[in-house]
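Lab manual, section 2.4: Encoding a predicted structure.

Procedure: take the sequence of the chain (175 residues), apply the prediction step described in section 2.3, and record the output as structure tokens. A sample record is shown.
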Amino acid sequence: MPGVATPSKYLKFKPHHVRKKAVQEGMKITSLMDMMTIILVFLLKTFSAQGDLSATSAHLSLPKSDSKSIPGIIDRVAVGQNSIFFLEEEVMATDEAINSRDIVIKPLKARMETRVESLEETMRAAGREGEPPKILVLADKSHYFSLIKRVVATAANAGYMNIVLASIEDTRKWE
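Recorded output:
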């Protein structure tokens, strides 16, 4: 019928204060979920670590390497400018280890042997017997090779069969 007002036309001509306004009930979280996903991915990429190099000591300056392999590391020994650290605990002064004539650093070996025994017990209890204990050697690039050789020999003598030397990847060689 041509003159009859339909409900949609009726609402159109109502004064604005009489019209019912759409009430928003709460916040729409669809866009927030997208943002949170992006932030989560960013944080995971930022804080994910390759191997155990994320916890490199601040007082070390690692040498560069062109190796592409990524080690899976359990324990860590750090040879800093002034001290040698094993599992974040200071073992002895670096000068004392340099001045020693022995190839094996005895205080470091004692701590490493204790740790290897506890690792072997843990692996045996977990049913992963036969996996050799692993260690990462972090050393400042300015140290003498003879000191690093002693630390590696001490780790091998204490029972670590998988020894990895830390370095910074030299990407310029691959470009």
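Check your result against the sample. The beta strands are 64-65, 75-79, 83-86, 89-93, 134-139, 162-165, 168-169.
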